[in-house]
Design goal:
Blueprint (H helix, E strand, L loop, with lengths): L1 H14 L16 E7 L4 H18 L4 E7 L12 H12 L3 E5 H6 L11 E4 L2 H10 L3 E3 L2
Parallel strand pairs: 1-2, 1-5, 2-3, 3-4
Helix pairs in contact: 2-3
Length: 144
C-alpha cells in the first residue's frame, strides 16, 4: 500500500508539475503580452474574466505580464461605475498595471457616456479591432 501511494504521488507530480516556459522566458524587460476580451455581461462571465486576469497576474507576477482587457458588447458592463462590486475588482487589477479598454461602438449603441465608466479606462473606437491589432502585434488573445 505504501508503495502504491508513492507511485500515485509521483504520477500526480508529473501530471501537475511546474509549467515549462517558452523562450524567451517572461521578464521585466520582455513581459508576456496578453489581450483579453470580455463580451458577455452576466455576473458569472464578468467575474470569471476578472478571476482569470487575477490568476495570470499571480502566476507571472505583475512585472512579467502586460495585460489589456477589452470590454465590448454586453461585457461593457464590466467597466460601469454603477456596478460597484465589479468596479472594486477592476480598480484592484488596475493597481497591478492591468489596462482596461472600452469599445466606443458599444458605448454609442448602448448610450453610455465616458463619465459612466470607471476611472482610468481607455476608450477606443472599436473594441474588436483593438483586440485584432494587439494580437497582430504579437499579444496572446484569451477569452475566458
Amino acid at each position: 500500500m505504501k508503495r502504491l501511494l508513492m507511485v500515485l504521488g509521483l504520477v500526480s507530480t508529473l501530471a501537475y508539475g511546474d509549467i515549462r516556459f517558452a523562450q524567451p522566458e517572461p521578464s521585466i524587460e520582455k513581459p508576456r503580452e496578453v489581450v483579453m476580451g470580455i463580451s458577455h455581461g452576466d455576473d458569472e462571465s464578468i467575474h470569471h474574466g476578472l478571476s482569470t486576469a487575477n490568476n495570470v497576474l499571480k502566476f507571472y507576477g505583475p512585472e512579467k505580464i502586460h495585460l489589456r482587457i477589452v470590454a465590448y458588447y454586453h461585457g461593457i458592463r464590466t467597466l460601469l461605475k454603477s456596478e460597484k462590486e465589479i468596479a472594486v475588482r477592476v480598480r484592484a487589477l488596475q493597481q497591478y498595471g492591468v489596462e482596461f479598454v472600452a469599445c466606443g461602438n458599444t458605448m454609442e449603441t448602448k448610450k453610455i457616456t465616458p463619465d459612466q465608466l470607471d476611472d482610468d479606462v481607455e476608450i477606443v473606437s472599436a473594441g474588436i479591432a483593438e483586440v485584432i491589432e494587439r494580437a497582430t502585434e504579437g499579444a496572446f488573445y484569451i477569452q475566458p
